[in-house]
Amino acid sequence: xxxxxxxxxxxxxxxxxxxxxxxxxxxxxxxxxxxxxxxxxxxxxxxxxxxxxxxxxxxxxxxxxxxxxxxxxxxxxxxxxxxxxxxxxxxxxxxxxxxxxxxxxxxxxxxxxxxxxxxxxxxxxxxxxxxxxxxxxxxxxxxxxxxxxxxxxxxxxxxxxxxxxxxxxxxxxxxxxxxxxxxxxxxxxxxxxxxxxxxxxxxxxxxxxxxxxxxxxxxxxxxxxxxxxxxxxxxxxxxxxxxxxxxxxxxxxxxxxxxxxxxxxxxxxxxxxxxxxxxxxxxxxxxxxxxxxxxxxxxxxxxxxxxxxxxxxxxxxxxxxxxxxxxxxxxxxxxxxxxxxxxxxxxxxxxxxxxxxxxxxxxxxxxxxxxxxxxxxxxxxxxxxxxxxxxxxxxxxxxxxxxxxxxxxxxxxxxxxxxxxxxxxxxxxxxxxxxxxxxxxxxxxxxxxxxxxxxxxxxxxxxxxxxxxxxxxxxxxxxxxxxxxxxxxxxxxxxxxxxxxxxxxxxxxxxxxxxxxxxxxxxxxxxxxxxxxxxxxxxxxxxxxxxxxxxxxxxxxxxxxxxxxxxxxxxxxxxxxxxxxxxxxxxxxxxxxxxxxxxxxxxxxxxxxxxx
Length: 612
Known about the structure:
Elements: E1 11-13, H1 30-33, H2 43-66, H3 69-75, H4 100-115, H5 124-143, H6 159-168, H7 175-185, H8 188-204, H9 211-224, H10 232-242, H11 249-281, H12 297-309, H13 315-346, H14 353-361, H15 373-386, E2 398-403, E3 415-418, E4 427-432, H16 440-450, H17 455-464, H18 477-491, H19 499-526, H20 530-538, H21 545-557, H22 561-583, H23 589-599, H24 604-611
Helix pairs in contact: 4-5, 7-11, 8-11, 9-11, 10-11, 13-19, 15-16, 16-18, 18-22, 19-21, 19-22, 20-21, 23-24
């Protein structure tokens, strides 16, 4: 098998500053809900019940999205169309150290309000929304006993790297946006201090992150501080504000100067303080291995896996399902290789098996870090065209491709997709990280993951169906990343490859992701050491000590990260297999894809319930 680098997977960027995206800390007014548990019989009463439920979710959406300006800005281009007035838009970044008791009270309040609705009187769409909210509340409630096990400063999706990207992409549609941006930026030091208060609490009870994870977070923070005079939060601010019409030269210069001053006097010192604070705490962690070595660590891991994957499989069941898929992929590779060699021999070629595999897995252009934007746009256009007839038709949309800032290339994913606002979903951004070597087929499949038919496609398709806005506030990574991984695997068969080539490359990619997932479960559920991880990969002819240390540190930093991609992908494969069995000769790819996409991000038990 070919290794494409033991580094973090691709990802979407959201605006939540913790694993618990929506806290739902609200007190629902009885007058808003007030529908009781009476069984309504008339159509008029059913209409009233559905209308009251939609009023409830609309109020819930407004309260939640208004609580954090960063969330509001990235969720809505025009808040006023959702009834959010300027008075409700207090500039706030949220808390880096939320009280779990307060969260628990909010969950109970919302759960109580939900119970006042007559579920069977709701229409199908509202029942789905009800089920998603109910499932999410139960997931968050189940995570409360493990509140101090979370790691908001992890090396994969920690606030130290996520915040700068979100600020660099903050849209300026009006002067008001500029002023809010600057006010928000000035709140970052307090937010980072709150995160460190949380980390101190973790340290005091022996739950601080492993030293290697802390050192990775420190390196990322140090990278943020490089090139201060030409920092990307300066250059991107200048680019965006110069595109804003109606500003005088005096105001333009004043805003540019103020942004630079906030960075110099507040943001850069805040990151320097974050580094110092982490240096003080980095040796206080009691565990340098998997979660299972922490008190209740295995229980926390099981809870985390369920939330991250959206699957109702247990960890042992996931291990068995993963091994089954790896075995099936190996068999498919052997069959494809046999057909390939057979064709060669029919042509009079005596190609050795090892040489043949090497040639196929080395397909594509020579490895390069110089990815041209024109080539990226061409590949995206090719993918958009080739998925027609296999996936539901998508509305016309645009995508801008940008490079990751040079100072952050080492610390960000190979590529990522920025989720657009609900009322601006026709405009999309994909970032390409020039710090990763990639060949032609690797770039093609990466763009399938991020673009068509992956994240961009799924996000825009679902948004175009105008679902209840509250659905967009719930993070179901297993569905979202599982779909993008499924799309990535499909893209091998959309590339300009022979069938056998596509099979070998796709199965190779699937096997590697499956092995990383087994490693995740091995480290955190079984307690594998670095030596045991090396033995595991050596059994497949993979890995040297340096790469094994990289993958071990990555899995330590963000437990269950690989599982949301791989188990989510397997869930879609299983849904597809069930759909094929049910429909037989009537099965159509496009119809299956429409069924699962129409449900939208949700736990897979609900996808199965509502897809058909």
